[in-house]
C-alpha cells in the first residue's frame, strides 16, 4: 500500500462542475492499494500518516504532525500509484487491487483517520476528479508499507 502525501495550504476536489471536498491547512493523501495489501499495511500507514512530522514548529523545523497543528486531511484514492513502468512506455496497473477490495481498504483508512480525531474530507472513489492543490513547501513524501 502506498500513500503519497503533500503538505498543503489548501486542496479541493472537483467532480464535473461540483466541488465535492475541500480542506485548508493540512495534508493531501493519495492512497494506492495494491494486490496483497493487508490490514497490517493499512494500520502501519494510518499510524504513520497521523504521526509523520512534516509541519514547521515555532523554530522553523519540520517537527509537528497534522494532529499537532489541528490540520485537515483530504484523502483521495489513487490506483495509479501501483503503476509499473519498467517495460515499455505504457504503465501497467496489474499490481493495483481490484476496485471492490481497494474501496474497502480506502474506506477503512478514512475510518481510522477519523478515529484519530482528524477532520477528514474525501475524494470520490472511482470518479474522474480534478484535484486543486496549493502545495506548501513544496513537501511531498511517498510512504510504502512494503518498505516500512
UniProtKB/TrEMBL annotation:
Residue positions of motif Gly-cisPro motif, important for rejection of L-amino acids: 137-138
One GO MF term: Gly-tRNA(Ala) deacylase activity
Subcellular location: Cytoplasm
Any one cellular-component term (Gene Ontology): cytoplasm
InterPro entries linked to this entry: Daa-tRNA_deacyls_DTD (IPR003732), DTD-like_sf (IPR023509)
UniProt-listed GO biological process terms: D-amino acid catabolic process
EC numbers: 3.1.1.96, 3.1.1.-
Family affiliation: Belongs to the DTD family.
Domain notes: A Gly-cisPro motif from one monomer fits into the active site of the other monomer to allow specific chiral rejection of L-amino acids.
Protein name: D-aminoacyl-tRNA deacylase
Organism: Candidatus Sulfobium mesophilum
Gene name of the record: dtd
